[in-house]
Amino acid sequence: MDFKTGDEVEVCSDDEGFRGAWYEAKIVRSMPRLNRYTVVYDSIVEETDASRNLRETVDAAYVRPRPIFARDGVFAIQQPVDAFCNDGWWEGVVSGLLGSVRRAKYSVSFPSTGDVMEFLPSELRPHLDWVNGEWVDPQTQVSSVPGVCSTEDMSGKMFQKGTSVEVSSDAEGFHGAWFPATVVKSVRNKFLVEYRDLTTDDETEPLKETVDSLHIRPTPPAILPPAKFKYLEEVDAYYNDGWWVGVISKVIDDSNYIVYFRTWGQEIEFRYEDLRPHHDWISGRWFRASQILSFY
């Protein structure tokens, strides 16, 4: 792809400490015969004069257009993203959602360094690859390796150390709930997790437990909830350190709701921030409750 003077682009580098990042810049000179461009960076400044943006000549192979993407600020766990850090965009994977959905921050894992950092939604964008003159979503690409991954293989790759997950239990009194946790260690389809809110019997430290792939799932997608929940809408309510599925049985006002739990046959009042739209994790995909109901 040829660029003209004034085009907004991104530039990568093989220099130590910069490898793997893309830096925003503008084309100030095109040299097609040499297959090179002179660019001026948006955020990188000269070492000797911080008031001047750095200008350098680079090979065309290190230049690409700026990606076009939807700026909705909502990202899913395990989604490949670019995070803006140290004046450039670095590839990583969303490993957790921090805070409420309304005021979310995301933790991002960087496979190249093993680091985990926190970012605001405005500092992230979906990761896209520039391949043969086109933007490609890596999540839509089909592997060229023959065969289909088993559920166990998929779980082992999905739930790596540090991944935010939710865990269910068949124990009496816990059936039907999903408890926030973090993967501490994974071995095939077994996972050692540390619960976010559940503690040991003496309440001195977070509870750790080994679970199998049937009792673990990613954190549900960070979809912005509606401005208010509707009567009879299926929701998850945060109660007793876990998320329990229920149905809105009464709308008190936009901030307070009565939720009916079929499991117990009880109604409990919740504030808006302790509720979320209900999703089901089926065969490696998230479905809204309305989608599930339409199957029957």
Automatic annotation (TrEMBL):
Sequence intervals crossing the membrane: none
Protein name: Agenet domain-containing protein
PANTHER family cross-referenced by the UniProt entry: AGENET DOMAIN-CONTAINING PROTEIN, AGENET DOMAIN-CONTAINING PROTEIN-RELATED
Gene3D superfamilies, per the entry: 2.30.30.140
Pfam families in UniProt: Agenet
Domain Agenet, residue spans: 1-71, 73-132, 157-224, 227-283
